[in-house]
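hey so i finally got around to running the thing on that chain from the lab meeting. sorry it took forever, my laptop kept dying and i had to restart like 3 times. anyway pasting the input first so we r on the same page abt which one it is
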Amino acid sequence: MKLHLECVPCYIRQTLDAAKMATDNKILLKHILKESLKAAYEFDTESNGLLTQAKIQKAVKHLIPNGDPYSDIKKKFNLICLGLEERLKKIIKESKDSFETGLRICLAGNIIDFGPKQTLGKKVILCTIKNALHQNLDSNKIKLLKENINKSEKILFIGDNAGEIVFDKIFIEKLPKRKITYVVRGGPTLNDSTMEDAEMIGMTKIVKVITTGLDMPAAILPLCSKEFLDKYNNSDLVISKGQGNYEALSNENKNIFFCLK
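ok and heres what got predicted. didnt touch it at all, straight out
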């Protein structure tokens, strides 16, 4: 997806918000902001906006203390969502259509994103799930996804955020798991899931898990690892979670279902 002008200040804000989670040193924050602005200066509205975001994060990552300011909050939301797991599985089991209900819960998990600077907690998550179970969705698209899952032999499921990954696991457990490879980020970036999160919530116990090879909040194909690209190119079906992956893959000529709020 091409860069929109409004994206640039958003990328700067995300970077500064992340830095503030790691330090309250005003001098350091000022330095981080300056380096972010320098990196953003040569943005190109004809290229993928995520490449500009990648330049900004790369320019300041070494300046942010501990490298992963979202680490604690990611673990917190993994635990919150794991605490809801049995309740959600019961809802799916008792529903009329376990596939559709599992998908709706999977979609609801995409609310767990600190990029838009939302106030999140267990109450907001439960409210989002409740709404997701009853909101209007395109039944034909749901049917089409189910048909594609059944007929595909190689499915690539590209995840998004920590916490949300628990909802993905609950959905995946009802699918033909032998077909599925789940994807996390190649390193810490915002509150996105990494291999550490996949291991923490048990995803690695049910399906093969790989990384994009990239510490960015999206599967930006020109920058991804050979392992990821081989899986992507050889897949019959891609299930993509979240806005970042949508921005990275929406122009691809590929059988992709985008699942996000």
